[in-house]
């Protein structure tokens, strides 16, 4: 979900105090706060499908799984704060966290045409500041397509795309599933290029 600028300038501490009193979620970047827009029904269904599939495997590893109401702090300075659609952390400090995560190993964003460029570019550049992050996942809400960026042993990000009929691998948590599992209960129609598209 992309955010709309609210033109409010705050310190990180002011943002956290203010955000705790708001009815809607706001992300925080460089002193500015951004109201989060609502996602589509396919967006929500895909996020639910993924978290349902991950719940038991993540728990069995002693890790924690979160959806889009959980903030992630990207630096010790408290800038920025984002709300990923799905995140997993296995770090001991995050197991005691109550306000925000600091050490996620897996972050997932469900993207639409209006958010994909931001999630793939600017937001990914920010997420790469997290030393704990091992995988960044972009799941299309328009067609059966998953893109995964993985940090390799040389500390370089490698790109792996997945399409219909393939098994998606989340190596950071040793989990895999058919890509179609992520799109259960999402109505699909054929598109002009032969790929399934989602009915919004």
From TrEMBL:
<feature type="domain" description="Putative restriction endonuclease">
    <location>
        <begin position="13"/>
        <end position="169"/>
    </location>
</feature>
<protein>
    <recommendedName>
        <fullName>Putative restriction endonuclease domain-containing protein</fullName>
    </recommendedName>
</protein>
<dbReference type="InterPro" id="IPR011335">
    <property type="entry name" value="Restrct_endonuc-II-like"/>
</dbReference>
<dbReference type="InterPro" id="IPR012296">
    <property type="entry name" value="Nuclease_put_TT1808"/>
</dbReference>
<dbReference type="Pfam" id="PF05685">
    <property type="entry name" value="Uma2"/>
</dbReference>
<dbReference type="InterPro" id="IPR008538">
    <property type="entry name" value="Uma2"/>
</dbReference>
